[in-house]
Amino acid sequence: KAALVTGATGAIGLAICEELLKEGITNLAVLDLHDEEPQSVENMRKEFPKSAIEYFKVDVTSDEELKQCYESFTNKVKYLDVVVNCAGIFNEKDYKNVLAVNLGGVIGSTLLAIDYMRADADKGRGGIVLNISSIAGLNTYAGMPIYSATKHGVVAFTRAVSHEREELGIKFLVLCPTATDSVLLDRICSKEYLFINSLDGIAVKSMLTVQSPCDVGKAAVQIMRDADNGDTWIIRNSELTKASLPKAIS
Fold first, then answer.
1. Rounded Cα distance, 125 and 121, in Å
2. CA dist 139 to 113, 135, 148, 189, 241, Å?
3. Rg of the chain (C-alpha set)
4. Which among 213, 183, 45 has a CA at the least distance from the CA of 30?
5. Catalytic residue set
6. 99 secondary structure, DSSP code
7. Residues near 36 by Cβ (< 8 Å), separated by ≥ 6?
8. Mind listing the pLDDT tens digit of every residue in the chain (250 residues)?
9. Please, what is the Cα angle at 174 between 168 and 123, to 5 degrees?
10. What are φ and ψ of residue 95, in 5° steps?
């Protein structure tokens, strides 16, 4: 089977890639912004020599770059089975870029995933789209209104897309991690990137219990396997909990 992951060399994205490979993914597209292929990609090739792993430099805010990547990858693998949209940034002082990456990138990639995976068209045979949101997509945090808005948007968009579209043969899911050890968390805990008049970053970090990216990677694979279409799940310190949300409206 073939999978495509955006934001794939960040802490959470990389952990998800590794778990997908452990589950038997034989073709993996690793998407990120680095000009040169990161060493972590070659490390995965060595650890999983039976899988074909290809790195794509892609800006998820560019519809053209995303389209070219999807086209190139699917030409090689024929069918795309799994898409994980994990690309995300944090900077409350650069709202346009945060909106473009965290929400626009997820929407753009999901729409392409539908185009290439839908079972009611020639290109696809169905599959799974997992969009990575955040606990900030379910709760409200005064220090990160812009980031929270994008992550709420990911939840709402994914749940709406999943509703009453069984003919696509695609299972749409959302995973909302709590604080996870990553560069993004370092930014969240830095006053330089927080919203105006927010708590000091050190004070923020002191209130957090930080989980491992591996916890998130394992949770991602588990819900892809077991969860129902349209579900939103929270991963907190290795424990998965289904979010209780109102039903989508037709």
1. 8
2. 28, 6, 8, 17, 15
3. 17
4. 45
5. 147
6. I
7. none
8. 999 999 999 999 999 999 999 999 999 999 999 999 999 999 999 999 999 999 999 999 999 999 999 999 999 998 999 999 999 998 989 999 999 999 999 999 999 999 999 999 888 999 999 999 999 999 988 888 999 999 999 999 999 999 999 999 999 999 999 988 877 777 776 777 777 666 655 445 545 678 899 999 999 999 999 999 999 999 998 899 999 999 889 8
9. 25
10. -65, -35
Task: Give the start-to-end residue ranges of the domains of the chain.
Answer: 2-242
Indicate the pTM of the whole model.
Answer: 0.93
Q: How far is CA 133 from CA 18, 121, 210, in A?
A: 19, 28, 16
Sole residue written with tokens 């790195």: 55
Beta bridge partners of 56: 31
- What CATH class does 2-242 carry? alpha beta
